Amino acid sequence: MIAGAPQVVADGRVFSPIEVEREVSLAIGRLRALGVREGERVALWAENSPQWIAVALAVLRAGAVLVPLNTRLADAEVAWQVGRAAPSVVIAGDAMAGRAIGAARVVPLREWEGLAPAEGDPAARDHSPARDAAIVFTSGTTGRPKGAVLTLANLLASARASASVLPLGPGDRWLAPLPFFHVGGLGIVVRCALAGAGVVLCAGASGEDLDRAVEAHGVTHLSVVDATLRRLMEARGGRALPASVRAVVAGGGPVSPALLAACPQALATYGLTETASMVALERPGERREGRLVAGRALPGIDLRVDAGGVIEVRGPVVMRGYLDDAAATAAAVRDGWLRTGDLGEIGADGSLTVLARRDDLIVSGGENVYPAEIELALREHPAVADAVVVGVADARWGEVPLAVVQLRGGAVAPDLRDFLTGRLARYKLPRIVFAPQIPRLANGKPDRAAVRRSPPG
User: Fold this and answer.
1) Could you tell me the residue range of the domain that residue 416 belongs to?
2) In b/e form, how buried is each residue of 14-53, taking b as 16+ CB within 10 angstroms?
3) Residue-wise pLDDT tens digits, 229-288
4) pTM reported for the whole predicted model
5) 1 in any annotated domain
6) Is the domain of 195 the same as that of 330?
7) What is the DSSP letter of 436?
């Protein structure tokens, strides 16, 4: 089981592990009062909060299966996931509780707090690591999301693999700007619970909000994507992060060279929902040769690239399978190896280079074009705040890259093709359009599917 409780810092308050443990015990009693039995599924549909952490840990300790739901989805999307997972109860934030998602039983958090816990021993009897612990839905960038079924062993193995490279203890605090319904956010909760470390909740997503949290709460670790880290470092106006910060785990894609220079604590990582979070991480003190390198495999995890260039993962973090989808599971996991669908290379030192998702790869005139490489080059221009690149149909070349660029406030549109000439091969030079904002998924990754559906310009 996942024993222990984290410290939680939120809304100007510090909740000690003892206080959080008390809330977890109450939450287990409330689950029993609702009639939740071991093995049943409990959906949690709420924003990041101390309550979210307590309820999630209670579900795991009670032997039930946690189903975190994305608060940013439309009602029909959430209803589909609820129908797929069939939870016995949905515990919902007050803002979500009244929405039409077709669930048989929805308990708003305001009612949850008033429930009298059931008497008696509420602890789970099944402590088998092989039991299902969580169902986390993928981003759904290539169709309907799939529910990755993660076992207790998966969650524990992921946390331990992380701790073997990034030690974590009671004096440490991990800033969590990622939503907890995302596997990266859930991973922070599990790691900190096992270590007795602190989870710091952020009041907002702006660079200023992140900066205040880092400065005020003695943050030692934080998890970000490239765009989040850029907001934070810009808010700091050239100042380095405090000495207390030991690791900035940067996932969701490559980190730009300018950010690496501004933030030496940044450690590139690579992970998936299907592996309970990260499987590769750049080690503290190491410095990569290439911009797309995501570090070496974490201890206990094997990485390889097949003949088609697809990254495969093996180890105790690999999911049990996709929820009620034997065909998709058989296609994804073969002989213990998870076929990720991402394209990459592994260097002589074991470092993984992530080139692109197979579905994001652009084949232009027979040449492979990787969107991340173009995006990094664009972000080197001082007027560019953000960029996303997708492939669009072309009568002559079959497909060409299209770059959607967001400029910094007040910047005049520069000649970016001229800027890229000499930095990129000619066949990689994209068509360029400008947009006020880049669409992003809840996990911070660019929403390429949305750009393909409705490209600006």
Assistant:
1) 362-453
2) ebebebbbebbbbbbbbbbebebeeebbbbbbbbbbbbbb
3) 988 999 999 899 999 999 999 987 777 777 878 899 999 899 999 999 999 999 988 766
4) 0.88
5) no
6) yes
7) S
